[in-house]
Amino acid sequence: MGTYTAAGAALLALAAASAAAIAAGPLRDGPGQAAPRFAKALGHTLPPVGFVTFCGHHPEDCRATTRHAPSFMRMPAQRWRQVAHVNRSVNASVAPVSDQELYGQNEYWAYAADAGDCEDYALLKKRQLEKLGFAPSALLITVVRDEQDDGHAVLMLRTEEGDFILDNRRDEIRRWNDLGYTYLKRQSELNPREWVSLGGHESAGMVAGGTAAR
User: Fold this and answer.
1) Given 33, 50, 71, 166, which is the most exposed site by the fewest CB atoms within 10 A?
2) What's the Cα-to-Cα distance from 207 to each of 14, 95, 143, 146, 185, rounded to whole Å?
3) Beta bridge partners of 122
4) CATH number at residue 125
5) Are 153 and 107 in contact (CB under 8 A)?
6) Angle between the 77-93 and 6-24 helix axes, to the nearest 10 degrees?
7) Is 214 within the bounds of a domain?
8) 179 is in which domain, residue-wise?
9) What is the rounded radius of gyration, in angstroms, for the C-alpha atoms of the chain?
10) Exposed, middle or buried: residue 117 (CB in 10 Å: 0-12, 13-18, 19+)?
């Protein structure tokens, strides 16, 4: 993953410590009420069109897992450091460009190289973390509506402490319900080709996965 500078190592350690503190600390949603640590799946739904095309191009990355239960990653400090490094390095190395600008179409999912939009960042982070030994079933591409009601894609990391989000819009790792997003759907833990609803509803005409680079 490259050689850390002293300053870079310090930043990554701080990010890891912050994520670990979030994971360990209480999560509240109003006086005396505990907020859910995990996003609840509500049944099967249609996958984004761009993802279906992506699987046609990369069938080896869309194989169903043989597990019979969801994976929740155990996250010692070393794992948090790896997540922080991958999230930060991908965000820094990929320029935000919309699918329309890059490919001439509204929705095209691909691994980000030096440019891409939100789902391209998420796909690259998923692949890099899998290479580091993270369970594929704990790394789920997720579609949301952002604060402006636009489509957006992020990577959800399922841990024993709860669900966390890797986002191309920020370097810090945040809890899923600490971002102001409306969660629409995500990959199934058991079969990445299948998607499950998270309760939100897509806006009319919204491209699943988002058209905005950021």
Assistant:
1) 33
2) 36, 21, 10, 13, 13
3) none
4) 3.10.620
5) no
6) 120
7) no
8) 6-197
9) 16
10) buried
Q: Is 112 a member of any domain?
A: yes
For residue 209, being part of any structural domain is answered with no
CA distance 108 to 119: 9
Locus of tokens 């971002």: 179
Q: Which residues in 14-92 belong to E strands, given as ranges? A: 44-45
Residue 58 inside a domain? The answer is yes
Residue 198, amino acid: L
Other beta carbons less than 10 A from residue 91's beta carbon? 17
Closest CA to 108 of 96, 122, 97, 120: 120
Contacts of residue 139, defined as CB under 8 A and 6 or more positions apart, other chains included, come to: 125, 126, 129, 130, 155, 156, 157, 158
Q: What is the pLDDT of residue 205?
A: 47
Amino acid letter, residue 22: I
Q: For residue range 152-183, what is the model confidence (pLDDT) as tens digits?
A: 999 999 999 999 999 999 999 999 999 999 99
In total, how many domains does the chain have?
1
Q: Which amino acid is at 173?
A: I
Predicted TM-score (pTM) of this structure: 0.82
Report pLDDT digits (tens) over 115-140.
999 999 999 999 999 999 999 999 99
Q: Residue 149 and residue 173: Cα distance in Å, rounded?
A: 22
Q: Which amino acid is at 197?
A: S
118-131 and 49-57 helices, crossing angle to 10°: 40
For 63, the enclosing helix (H) or strand (E) is: none
